[in-house]
Recover the amino acids of this structure.
């Protein structure tokens, strides 16, 4: 399998080619149409678009660009993003021509982080970088999980496996599992506890564009179609676990559930909670007057993974709704807790 890096920049996009079959990994929005030209010029067939995780530092493709690229969009099940065509699980293999791509679920940088193992190499996304690892201080980050993923999964691959990271800030392109296991200072001679402590004390500033990027990515919008509240404000929304929400729903004064997913998701694989009011995130602003009657009521906002709903909850709070909470982990957590759904 041929592996090509396309951006020649800090944020890396790869194209995997087997025969004339191609897979695009981590496309950057501004360059999407260039990737399509490149694929066409080579006479390749673009068959897969895979994201190694939900990115916070560059704009991911929108639903319009996904249509323009004309290939299915794949992410791990934990992805919050509404336009995913196929959700991936750990250990799953994807066919590309005569060869296969194996999915390794490696949460830590984000809950939906995956690495892609191909013959002789592994694309490590932001899980393992050359001499480093992806930061774990964004929402859903988990340094302990990342330590486990790297030391118990990636470092057990053959030493000569080539590592293609999702980022590099020093112009390097590739490394090997052996080199990283022997010399990556983040992991070298560090216990899990020491790693967690070190990651908590990196003191990195938030990426420049996180405000305009993360919430747009989590919603697959074309532009800033929604007046998003600052991420710092989103972070202060009360989170309520699925069993607790279920208990509140059975009480004498049940909260109103506002589900901000897309209509297809509402009736899709995960279903929805009985009685939930569907108000897709991009329609929330417009529907506010209709929600005015609920301004003094307890409201729990719901989405797929709890990201879009946290944003929506902060928007509702800004609009004067005071008793707002977020279903922590979204419908993924609700279904994981085996609570009832409707389709
Ligand atoms: Fe990332």
């Amino acid at each position: 399998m041929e592996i090509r890096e396309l951006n020649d920049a800090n944020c890396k996009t790869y194209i995997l080619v087997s025969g004339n079959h191609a897979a695009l990994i981590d496309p950057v929005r501004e360059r999407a149409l260039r990737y399509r030209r490149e694929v066409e010029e080579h006479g390749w067939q673009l068959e897969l678009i895979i994201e190694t995780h939900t990115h916070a530092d560059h704009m991911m493709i929108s639903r319009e660009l996904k249509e323009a690229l004309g290939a299915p969009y794949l992410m791990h099940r934990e992805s919050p993003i509404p336009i995913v065509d196929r959700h991936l699980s750990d250990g799953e293999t994807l066919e590309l021509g005569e060869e296969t791509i194996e999915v390794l679920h490696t949460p830590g940088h984000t809950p939906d982080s995956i690495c892609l193992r191909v013959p002789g190499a592994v694309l490590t996304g932001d899980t393992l970088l050359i001499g480093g690892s992806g930061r774990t201080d964004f929402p859903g980050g988990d340094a302990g999980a990342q330590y486990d993923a790297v030391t118990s999964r990636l470092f057990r691959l053959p030493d000569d496996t080539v590592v293609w990271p999702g980022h590099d800030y020093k112009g390097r392109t590739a490394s090997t599992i052996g080199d990283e296991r022997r010399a990556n200072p983040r992991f070298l001679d560090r216990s899990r506890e020491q790693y967690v402590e070190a990651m908590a004390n990196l003191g990195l500033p938030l990426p420049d564009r996180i405000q305009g990027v993360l919430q747009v990515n989590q919603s697959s919008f074309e532009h800033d179609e929604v007046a998003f509240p600052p991420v710092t404000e989103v972070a202060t929304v009360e989170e309520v676990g699925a069993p607790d929400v279920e208990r509140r729903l059975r009480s004498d004064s049940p909260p109103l559930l506002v589900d901000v997913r897309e209509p297809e998701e509402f009736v899709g694989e995960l279903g929805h909670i009985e009685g939930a009011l569907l108000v897709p995130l991009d329609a929330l602003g417009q529907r506010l007057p209709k929600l005015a009657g609920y301004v003094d009521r307890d409201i729990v906002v719901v989405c797929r993974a709890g990201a879009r709903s946290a944003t929506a909850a902060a928007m509702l709070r800004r609009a004067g709704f005071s008793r707002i909470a977020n279903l922590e982990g979204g419908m993924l957590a609700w279904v994981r807790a085996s609570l009832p759904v409707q389709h």
